[in-house]
Design a protein that fits this description.
By secondary structure, the chain is of the alpha+beta class. It has two domains: 418 residues, Up-down Bundle (Outer membrane efflux proteins (OEP)), CATH 1.20.1600; 26 residues, no CATH class. Helices cover 66% and strands 13% of the residues. The protein has a four-stranded antiparallel beta sheet with strand order 1-2-3-4, with no helix packed on it. Helix 3 packs parallel to helix 11. The longest helix has 67 residues. The two termini are 71 Å apart.
Length: 468
Protein backbone atom coordinates (compact mmCIF):
# COMPACT_ATOMS: atom_id res chain seq x y z
CA UNK A 1 0.00 0.00 0.00
CA UNK A 2 2.87 2.38 0.81
CA UNK A 3 4.52 1.71 -2.56
CA UNK A 4 1.21 2.31 -4.35
CA UNK A 5 0.73 5.63 -2.53
CA UNK A 6 4.16 7.01 -3.38
CA UNK A 7 4.01 5.71 -6.93
CA UNK A 8 0.84 7.76 -7.49
CA UNK A 9 2.45 10.86 -5.98
CA UNK A 10 5.64 10.47 -8.00
CA UNK A 11 3.91 9.97 -11.34
CA UNK A 12 1.50 12.87 -10.88
CA UNK A 13 4.13 15.30 -9.59
CA UNK A 14 6.44 14.62 -12.52
CA UNK A 15 3.73 15.85 -14.87
CA UNK A 16 2.61 18.61 -12.51
CA UNK A 17 4.20 21.39 -14.56
CA UNK A 18 1.29 23.43 -15.96
CA UNK A 19 1.13 23.02 -19.72
CA UNK A 20 -1.43 25.00 -21.72
CA UNK A 21 -2.37 23.29 -25.00
CA UNK A 22 -1.55 25.51 -27.97
CA UNK A 23 -4.27 25.32 -30.58
CA UNK A 24 -3.63 25.83 -34.27
CA UNK A 25 -5.50 29.13 -34.21
CA UNK A 26 -3.73 30.52 -31.11
CA UNK A 27 -2.91 34.21 -31.40
CA UNK A 28 0.70 35.32 -31.23
CA UNK A 29 1.92 38.42 -29.43
CA UNK A 30 2.46 40.17 -32.78
CA UNK A 31 -1.10 39.42 -33.86
CA UNK A 32 -2.46 40.78 -30.59
CA UNK A 33 -0.35 43.93 -31.00
CA UNK A 34 -1.79 44.46 -34.47
CA UNK A 35 -5.31 44.07 -33.12
CA UNK A 36 -4.69 46.50 -30.25
CA UNK A 37 -3.15 49.07 -32.61
CA UNK A 38 -6.10 48.87 -35.00
CA UNK A 39 -8.72 49.02 -32.23
CA UNK A 40 -7.14 51.73 -30.06
CA UNK A 41 -9.46 54.63 -29.37
CA UNK A 42 -6.60 56.38 -27.57
CA UNK A 43 -4.58 56.47 -30.78
CA UNK A 44 -7.57 57.84 -32.69
CA UNK A 45 -8.01 60.56 -30.09
CA UNK A 46 -4.39 61.66 -30.32
CA UNK A 47 -4.42 61.55 -34.12
CA UNK A 48 -7.30 63.99 -33.98
CA UNK A 49 -5.27 66.21 -31.63
CA UNK A 50 -2.44 66.11 -34.16
CA UNK A 51 -4.81 67.27 -36.88
CA UNK A 52 -5.81 70.14 -34.58
CA UNK A 53 -2.14 71.16 -34.44
CA UNK A 54 -1.92 70.84 -38.24
CA UNK A 55 -4.80 73.26 -38.62
CA UNK A 56 -3.02 75.77 -36.39
CA UNK A 57 -0.33 75.95 -39.08
CA UNK A 58 -2.99 76.71 -41.68
CA UNK A 59 -4.50 79.40 -39.46
CA UNK A 60 -1.11 81.03 -38.89
CA UNK A 61 -0.22 80.86 -42.60
CA UNK A 62 -3.46 82.61 -43.55
CA UNK A 63 -2.25 85.83 -41.88
CA UNK A 64 0.64 86.00 -44.36
CA UNK A 65 -1.82 86.35 -47.20
CA UNK A 66 -4.22 89.01 -48.30
CA UNK A 67 -7.85 89.14 -47.31
CA UNK A 68 -10.51 89.63 -49.99
CA UNK A 69 -14.08 90.52 -49.11
CA UNK A 70 -17.24 91.90 -50.60
CA UNK A 71 -20.16 94.02 -49.51
CA UNK A 72 -23.55 94.87 -50.97
CA UNK A 73 -26.44 97.07 -49.94
CA UNK A 74 -29.71 98.41 -51.21
CA UNK A 75 -31.40 101.49 -49.80
CA UNK A 76 -34.88 102.89 -50.37
CA UNK A 77 -35.54 106.50 -49.30
CA UNK A 78 -38.89 108.25 -49.15
CA UNK A 79 -39.31 111.91 -48.22
CA UNK A 80 -42.55 113.81 -47.61
CA UNK A 81 -42.32 117.61 -47.14
CA UNK A 82 -44.82 120.44 -46.60
CA UNK A 83 -43.86 124.03 -47.39
CA UNK A 84 -45.56 126.35 -44.86
CA UNK A 85 -44.82 129.55 -46.72
CA UNK A 86 -47.51 131.80 -48.20
CA UNK A 87 -47.85 129.32 -51.03
CA UNK A 88 -48.42 125.98 -49.42
CA UNK A 89 -46.75 123.18 -51.38
CA UNK A 90 -46.50 119.50 -50.51
CA UNK A 91 -43.82 117.25 -52.02
CA UNK A 92 -43.45 113.47 -51.95
CA UNK A 93 -40.23 111.94 -53.32
CA UNK A 94 -38.75 108.44 -53.28
CA UNK A 95 -35.39 107.09 -54.39
CA UNK A 96 -33.62 103.73 -54.52
CA UNK A 97 -29.89 103.22 -54.37
CA UNK A 98 -27.95 99.93 -54.70
CA UNK A 99 -24.24 99.45 -54.28
CA UNK A 100 -21.72 96.61 -54.37
CA UNK A 101 -18.06 96.65 -53.47
CA UNK A 102 -14.89 94.59 -53.23
CA UNK A 103 -12.22 95.20 -50.62
CA UNK A 104 -8.79 93.66 -50.22
CA UNK A 105 -5.96 94.12 -47.77
CA UNK A 106 -2.59 92.56 -47.04
CA UNK A 107 -0.03 93.11 -44.32
CA UNK A 108 3.31 93.91 -45.91
CA UNK A 109 5.32 94.13 -42.71
CA UNK A 110 4.55 93.38 -39.08
CA UNK A 111 7.95 92.92 -37.51
CA UNK A 112 7.91 89.21 -38.39
CA UNK A 113 5.02 88.37 -36.05
CA UNK A 114 3.05 86.32 -38.57
CA UNK A 115 6.14 84.59 -39.92
CA UNK A 116 7.23 83.56 -36.42
CA UNK A 117 3.68 82.42 -35.64
CA UNK A 118 3.85 79.99 -38.58
CA UNK A 119 7.24 78.69 -37.44
CA UNK A 120 5.94 78.20 -33.89
CA UNK A 121 2.88 76.33 -35.16
CA UNK A 122 5.09 74.00 -37.21
CA UNK A 123 7.19 73.20 -34.15
CA UNK A 124 3.98 72.44 -32.25
CA UNK A 125 3.06 69.95 -34.98
CA UNK A 126 6.44 68.21 -34.70
CA UNK A 127 6.06 68.05 -30.92
CA UNK A 128 2.55 66.62 -31.17
CA UNK A 129 3.76 63.95 -33.59
CA UNK A 130 6.23 62.76 -30.98
CA UNK A 131 3.47 62.73 -28.37
CA UNK A 132 1.53 60.46 -30.73
CA UNK A 133 4.56 58.13 -30.92
CA UNK A 134 4.66 58.09 -27.12
CA UNK A 135 0.98 57.10 -27.01
CA UNK A 136 1.65 54.39 -29.60
CA UNK A 137 4.39 52.98 -27.38
CA UNK A 138 2.07 53.02 -24.38
CA UNK A 139 -0.66 51.18 -26.31
CA UNK A 140 1.74 48.46 -27.45
CA UNK A 141 3.36 48.10 -24.02
CA UNK A 142 0.03 47.72 -22.22
CA UNK A 143 -0.79 45.11 -24.86
CA UNK A 144 2.34 43.15 -23.96
CA UNK A 145 1.45 43.41 -20.28
CA UNK A 146 -2.12 42.23 -20.84
CA UNK A 147 -0.95 39.35 -23.05
CA UNK A 148 1.64 38.12 -20.57
CA UNK A 149 -0.65 38.54 -17.54
CA UNK A 150 -3.35 36.36 -19.11
CA UNK A 151 -0.78 33.69 -19.95
CA UNK A 152 0.66 33.92 -16.43
CA UNK A 153 -2.73 33.56 -14.72
CA UNK A 154 -3.80 30.72 -17.01
CA UNK A 155 -0.66 28.82 -16.10
CA UNK A 156 -1.31 29.51 -12.43
CA UNK A 157 -4.82 28.08 -12.76
CA UNK A 158 -3.52 24.97 -14.54
CA UNK A 159 -0.85 24.52 -11.88
CA UNK A 160 -3.37 24.90 -9.04
CA UNK A 161 -5.81 22.49 -10.68
CA UNK A 162 -3.10 19.88 -11.01
CA UNK A 163 -2.09 20.45 -7.40
CA UNK A 164 -5.67 19.82 -6.25
CA UNK A 165 -5.71 16.54 -8.17
CA UNK A 166 -2.40 15.48 -6.65
CA UNK A 167 -3.49 16.22 -3.08
CA UNK A 168 -6.81 14.45 -3.66
CA UNK A 169 -4.82 11.33 -4.57
CA UNK A 170 -2.64 11.84 -1.50
CA UNK A 171 -5.71 12.16 0.72
CA UNK A 172 -7.23 9.01 -0.75
CA UNK A 173 -3.98 7.12 -0.21
CA UNK A 174 -3.71 8.44 3.36
CA UNK A 175 -7.22 7.24 4.13
CA UNK A 176 -6.43 3.82 2.68
CA UNK A 177 -3.31 3.58 4.81
CA UNK A 178 -5.27 4.73 7.87
CA UNK A 179 -7.76 1.92 7.33
CA UNK A 180 -4.96 -0.65 7.57
CA UNK A 181 -3.30 1.11 10.51
CA UNK A 182 -0.16 2.33 8.71
CA UNK A 183 -0.76 6.00 9.60
CA UNK A 184 -2.71 7.91 12.21
CA UNK A 185 -5.71 10.20 12.00
CA UNK A 186 -3.26 13.09 12.15
CA UNK A 187 -1.82 12.17 8.73
CA UNK A 188 -5.31 12.15 7.22
CA UNK A 189 -6.09 15.53 8.80
CA UNK A 190 -2.87 17.00 7.40
CA UNK A 191 -3.80 15.87 3.89
CA UNK A 192 -7.33 17.25 4.30
CA UNK A 193 -6.00 20.61 5.46
CA UNK A 194 -3.57 20.79 2.55
CA UNK A 195 -6.40 19.94 0.12
CA UNK A 196 -8.56 22.76 1.52
CA UNK A 197 -5.67 25.21 1.12
CA UNK A 198 -5.10 24.01 -2.44
CA UNK A 199 -8.78 24.49 -3.34
CA UNK A 200 -8.64 28.00 -1.88
CA UNK A 201 -5.52 28.80 -3.94
CA UNK A 202 -7.27 27.54 -7.06
CA UNK A 203 -10.25 29.82 -6.43
CA UNK A 204 -7.91 32.77 -5.95
CA UNK A 205 -6.07 31.93 -9.18
CA UNK A 206 -9.35 31.78 -11.10
CA UNK A 207 -10.31 35.20 -9.73
CA UNK A 208 -6.97 36.68 -10.79
CA UNK A 209 -7.40 35.15 -14.25
CA UNK A 210 -10.85 36.72 -14.62
CA UNK A 211 -9.39 40.13 -13.75
CA UNK A 212 -6.50 39.68 -16.20
CA UNK A 213 -8.92 38.73 -18.98
CA UNK A 214 -11.03 41.83 -18.32
CA UNK A 215 -7.92 44.03 -18.58
CA UNK A 216 -7.00 42.19 -21.78
CA UNK A 217 -10.42 42.86 -23.30
CA UNK A 218 -10.25 46.55 -22.41
CA UNK A 219 -6.72 46.88 -23.81
CA UNK A 220 -7.02 44.86 -27.02
CA UNK A 221 -10.71 45.33 -27.76
CA UNK A 222 -11.58 41.61 -27.94
CA UNK A 223 -11.81 38.80 -25.38
CA UNK A 224 -8.69 36.72 -24.86
CA UNK A 225 -8.68 33.54 -26.92
CA UNK A 226 -5.96 30.94 -27.09
CA UNK A 227 -2.58 32.67 -26.78
CA UNK A 228 0.62 31.18 -28.14
CA UNK A 229 4.14 31.47 -26.77
CA UNK A 230 5.38 35.09 -26.95
CA UNK A 231 8.44 34.14 -29.00
CA UNK A 232 11.94 35.54 -28.66
CA UNK A 233 12.89 38.58 -26.63
CA UNK A 234 13.48 41.75 -28.69
CA UNK A 235 17.01 42.96 -29.34
CA UNK A 236 18.01 45.38 -26.60
CA UNK A 237 21.03 47.43 -25.48
CA UNK A 238 23.68 45.37 -23.76
CA UNK A 239 24.20 47.60 -20.74
CA UNK A 240 22.49 50.10 -18.49
CA UNK A 241 24.70 52.90 -19.84
CA UNK A 242 23.78 52.07 -23.44
CA UNK A 243 20.10 52.01 -22.48
CA UNK A 244 20.32 55.45 -20.88
CA UNK A 245 22.18 56.88 -23.87
CA UNK A 246 19.63 55.53 -26.34
CA UNK A 247 16.79 56.80 -24.17
CA UNK A 248 17.93 60.44 -24.03
CA UNK A 249 18.58 60.37 -27.78
CA UNK A 250 15.56 58.52 -29.15
CA UNK A 251 12.69 58.67 -26.66
CA UNK A 252 9.73 60.60 -28.11
CA UNK A 253 9.30 62.58 -24.89
CA UNK A 254 12.77 64.13 -25.19
CA UNK A 255 12.28 64.91 -28.89
CA UNK A 256 8.86 66.41 -28.18
CA UNK A 257 10.12 68.83 -25.56
CA UNK A 258 13.00 69.87 -27.83
CA UNK A 259 10.40 71.02 -30.35
CA UNK A 260 8.49 72.71 -27.52
CA UNK A 261 11.60 74.75 -26.75
CA UNK A 262 11.90 75.83 -30.39
CA UNK A 263 8.22 76.75 -30.39
CA UNK A 264 8.73 78.88 -27.27
CA UNK A 265 11.70 80.62 -28.90
CA UNK A 266 9.63 81.51 -31.96
CA UNK A 267 6.84 82.77 -29.72
CA UNK A 268 9.37 84.97 -27.94
CA UNK A 269 10.50 86.44 -31.27
CA UNK A 270 6.87 86.94 -32.22
CA UNK A 271 6.26 88.86 -29.01
CA UNK A 272 9.29 91.01 -29.76
CA UNK A 273 7.86 91.87 -33.17
CA UNK A 274 4.99 93.71 -31.49
CA UNK A 275 7.41 96.56 -30.70
CA UNK A 276 7.98 97.17 -34.41
CA UNK A 277 5.72 99.10 -36.82
CA UNK A 278 3.36 97.43 -39.27
CA UNK A 279 2.63 98.34 -42.88
CA UNK A 280 -0.67 97.47 -44.55
CA UNK A 281 -1.87 97.83 -48.15
CA UNK A 282 -5.62 98.18 -48.77
CA UNK A 283 -7.78 98.65 -51.84
CA UNK A 284 -11.49 99.22 -52.42
CA UNK A 285 -13.63 99.02 -55.55
CA UNK A 286 -17.25 100.16 -55.50
CA UNK A 287 -20.22 100.54 -57.81
CA UNK A 288 -23.39 102.43 -56.92
CA UNK A 289 -26.52 102.64 -59.07
CA UNK A 290 -29.43 105.01 -58.57
CA UNK A 291 -32.70 105.62 -60.31
CA UNK A 292 -32.79 107.15 -63.77
CA UNK A 293 -29.75 105.10 -64.77
CA UNK A 294 -27.50 107.17 -62.59
CA UNK A 295 -24.44 105.27 -61.40
CA UNK A 296 -21.12 105.86 -59.78
CA UNK A 297 -17.89 103.86 -59.91
CA UNK A 298 -15.24 104.35 -57.28
CA UNK A 299 -11.88 102.91 -56.37
CA UNK A 300 -9.16 103.59 -53.86
CA UNK A 301 -5.81 102.20 -52.78
CA UNK A 302 -4.02 103.09 -49.60
CA UNK A 303 -0.76 102.30 -47.87
CA UNK A 304 -0.81 102.75 -44.12
CA UNK A 305 1.71 102.34 -41.36
CA UNK A 306 1.24 102.19 -37.63
CA UNK A 307 3.30 101.44 -34.59
CA UNK A 308 3.04 101.26 -30.83
CA UNK A 309 3.89 104.15 -28.55
CA UNK A 310 2.28 103.09 -25.30
CA UNK A 311 0.22 99.99 -24.54
CA UNK A 312 -0.14 100.21 -20.80
CA UNK A 313 2.68 97.70 -20.32
CA UNK A 314 0.89 94.91 -22.23
CA UNK A 315 3.51 94.45 -24.97
CA UNK A 316 6.58 94.12 -22.71
CA UNK A 317 4.57 91.86 -20.38
CA UNK A 318 3.82 89.50 -23.29
CA UNK A 319 7.50 89.43 -24.18
CA UNK A 320 8.50 88.60 -20.61
CA UNK A 321 5.83 85.91 -20.52
CA UNK A 322 7.15 84.32 -23.72
CA UNK A 323 10.70 84.40 -22.36
CA UNK A 324 9.57 82.75 -19.12
CA UNK A 325 7.77 80.03 -21.09
CA UNK A 326 10.95 79.33 -23.01
CA UNK A 327 12.94 79.10 -19.78
CA UNK A 328 10.32 76.74 -18.35
CA UNK A 329 10.60 74.47 -21.40
CA UNK A 330 14.38 74.41 -21.08
CA UNK A 331 14.07 73.39 -17.44
CA UNK A 332 11.55 70.78 -18.52
CA UNK A 333 14.09 69.33 -20.95
CA UNK A 334 16.59 68.91 -18.12
CA UNK A 335 14.00 67.26 -15.88
CA UNK A 336 12.83 65.00 -18.69
CA UNK A 337 16.41 63.92 -19.38
CA UNK A 338 16.94 63.02 -15.72
CA UNK A 339 13.60 61.20 -15.59
CA UNK A 340 14.34 59.17 -18.72
CA UNK A 341 17.82 58.24 -17.50
CA UNK A 342 16.35 57.04 -14.20
CA UNK A 343 13.55 55.09 -15.90
CA UNK A 344 15.93 53.58 -18.44
CA UNK A 345 18.34 52.46 -15.72
CA UNK A 346 15.48 51.04 -13.66
CA UNK A 347 14.02 49.23 -16.67
CA UNK A 348 17.36 47.60 -17.46
CA UNK A 349 17.82 46.63 -13.80
CA UNK A 350 14.34 45.05 -13.75
CA UNK A 351 15.24 43.06 -16.85
CA UNK A 352 18.42 41.76 -15.25
CA UNK A 353 16.47 40.90 -12.10
CA UNK A 354 13.86 39.03 -14.14
CA UNK A 355 16.52 37.06 -16.02
CA UNK A 356 18.24 36.15 -12.78
CA UNK A 357 14.89 35.23 -11.24
CA UNK A 358 14.04 32.93 -14.14
CA UNK A 359 17.40 31.19 -13.93
CA UNK A 360 17.11 30.82 -10.16
CA UNK A 361 13.57 29.43 -10.50
CA UNK A 362 14.76 26.82 -12.99
CA UNK A 363 17.50 25.74 -10.58
CA UNK A 364 15.01 25.79 -7.70
CA UNK A 365 12.64 23.50 -9.59
CA UNK A 366 15.45 21.06 -10.31
CA UNK A 367 16.58 21.04 -6.68
CA UNK A 368 13.02 20.88 -5.31
CA UNK A 369 12.22 17.89 -7.51
CA UNK A 370 15.32 16.07 -6.30
CA UNK A 371 14.42 16.95 -2.71
CA UNK A 372 10.85 15.77 -3.15
CA UNK A 373 11.94 12.47 -4.64
CA UNK A 374 14.42 12.01 -1.80
CA UNK A 375 11.80 12.74 0.86
CA UNK A 376 9.43 10.37 -0.85
CA UNK A 377 11.97 7.54 -0.84
CA UNK A 378 12.90 8.23 2.77
CA UNK A 379 9.22 8.13 3.73
CA UNK A 380 8.99 4.63 2.31
CA UNK A 381 11.31 3.38 5.02
CA UNK A 382 9.72 5.48 7.74
CA UNK A 383 12.48 8.11 7.90
CA UNK A 384 10.07 10.88 6.79
CA UNK A 385 6.49 11.70 7.74
CA UNK A 386 3.46 12.56 5.64
CA UNK A 387 3.99 16.20 6.60
CA UNK A 388 7.52 16.06 5.20
CA UNK A 389 6.18 14.76 1.89
CA UNK A 390 3.50 17.46 1.75
CA UNK A 391 6.02 20.19 2.52
CA UNK A 392 8.41 18.95 -0.16
CA UNK A 393 5.55 18.88 -2.62
CA UNK A 394 4.61 22.47 -1.67
CA UNK A 395 8.18 23.65 -2.22
CA UNK A 396 8.15 22.14 -5.70
CA UNK A 397 4.81 23.81 -6.40
CA UNK A 398 6.14 27.18 -5.23
CA UNK A 399 9.20 26.79 -7.45
CA UNK A 400 7.02 26.06 -10.47
CA UNK A 401 4.85 29.09 -9.72
CA UNK A 402 7.99 31.19 -9.36
CA UNK A 403 9.19 30.14 -12.80
CA UNK A 404 5.84 31.05 -14.36
CA UNK A 405 6.03 34.50 -12.82
CA UNK A 406 9.71 35.01 -13.70
CA UNK A 407 9.13 34.17 -17.37
CA UNK A 408 6.30 36.69 -17.63
CA UNK A 409 8.29 39.33 -15.74
CA UNK A 410 11.24 38.86 -18.09
CA UNK A 411 9.16 39.54 -21.20
CA UNK A 412 7.42 42.55 -19.67
CA UNK A 413 10.76 43.96 -18.50
CA UNK A 414 12.30 43.48 -21.96
CA UNK A 415 9.53 45.43 -23.65
CA UNK A 416 9.76 48.10 -20.95
CA UNK A 417 13.38 48.61 -21.98
CA UNK A 418 12.23 48.83 -25.60
CA UNK A 419 9.84 51.61 -24.57
CA UNK A 420 12.62 53.52 -22.84
CA UNK A 421 14.80 53.52 -25.96
CA UNK A 422 11.86 54.69 -28.09
CA UNK A 423 11.60 51.59 -30.27
CA UNK A 424 8.31 49.98 -29.25
CA UNK A 425 6.58 51.18 -32.42
CA UNK A 426 4.88 49.46 -35.32
CA UNK A 427 7.68 50.66 -37.60
CA UNK A 428 10.49 49.19 -35.51
CA UNK A 429 8.59 45.95 -34.87
CA UNK A 430 7.51 45.85 -38.53
CA UNK A 431 3.94 45.00 -37.60
CA UNK A 432 1.60 44.36 -40.55
CA UNK A 433 -0.76 47.30 -39.97
CA UNK A 434 -2.00 50.17 -42.08
CA UNK A 435 0.24 52.89 -40.74
CA UNK A 436 -1.07 56.35 -39.99
CA UNK A 437 0.84 58.88 -42.08
CA UNK A 438 0.83 62.27 -40.31
CA UNK A 439 2.28 63.98 -43.38
CA UNK A 440 -0.70 63.17 -45.58
CA UNK A 441 -3.07 65.46 -43.71
CA UNK A 442 -0.41 68.05 -42.87
CA UNK A 443 0.69 68.48 -46.49
CA UNK A 444 -2.85 69.33 -47.51
CA UNK A 445 -3.57 71.85 -44.76
CA UNK A 446 -0.15 73.51 -44.53
CA UNK A 447 -0.98 75.96 -47.32
CA UNK A 448 -4.45 76.69 -45.86
CA UNK A 449 -6.54 75.53 -48.84
CA UNK A 450 -10.08 76.79 -49.28
CA UNK A 451 -12.93 74.33 -49.46
CA UNK A 452 -13.51 75.34 -53.09
CA UNK A 453 -9.99 74.50 -54.30
CA UNK A 454 -8.87 71.11 -55.58
CA UNK A 455 -6.68 70.70 -52.50
CA UNK A 456 -9.65 71.60 -50.34
CA UNK A 457 -11.79 68.93 -52.01
CA UNK A 458 -9.02 66.37 -51.57
CA UNK A 459 -8.78 67.35 -47.90
CA UNK A 460 -12.50 66.74 -47.48
CA UNK A 461 -12.01 63.23 -48.90
CA UNK A 462 -9.19 62.55 -46.44
CA UNK A 463 -11.35 63.71 -43.53
CA UNK A 464 -14.19 61.43 -44.61
CA UNK A 465 -11.80 58.48 -44.87
CA UNK A 466 -10.38 59.18 -41.40
CA UNK A 467 -13.86 59.41 -39.88
CA UNK A 468 -14.91 55.97 -41.14
Amino acid sequence: MIKKFYKIVAVVMIVACPLIPQLANAESLRQVMVKAYNNSGLLEQNRALLRVADEDVAVAASFLRGVLGWSASIERNKVQALNSSSVRQETDTASTEASVGLNASITLYDGGQNRFAVAAAKEAVLSTRQKLVSVEQMVLFTTVQAFMEVRRERKYVALRKNNVRVIQEELKAAKDRFEVGEVTKTDVALAEARLAASVSSLASAKGSLAQAEEVYKQTIGDPAGSLSEPGKLPQLPSSSLATKKASVQNHPDIISIQHDIKQAEFNMKRAGGAFKPSVKLSTLLGYTEQEADDFQRSGSISLSASGPIYSGGRTPALLRKARAQRDAQRSGLHLTRLKLEQEAGSAFALLQMAKAGRKASEEQISASRVAFEGVREEAKVGARTTLDVLNAEQELLDAQAGLISAEADEFIAAYRVLVQVGKLTVDHLNLPVQRYDPLEYYNFVESAPTSMSNRGKKLDQILKAISK
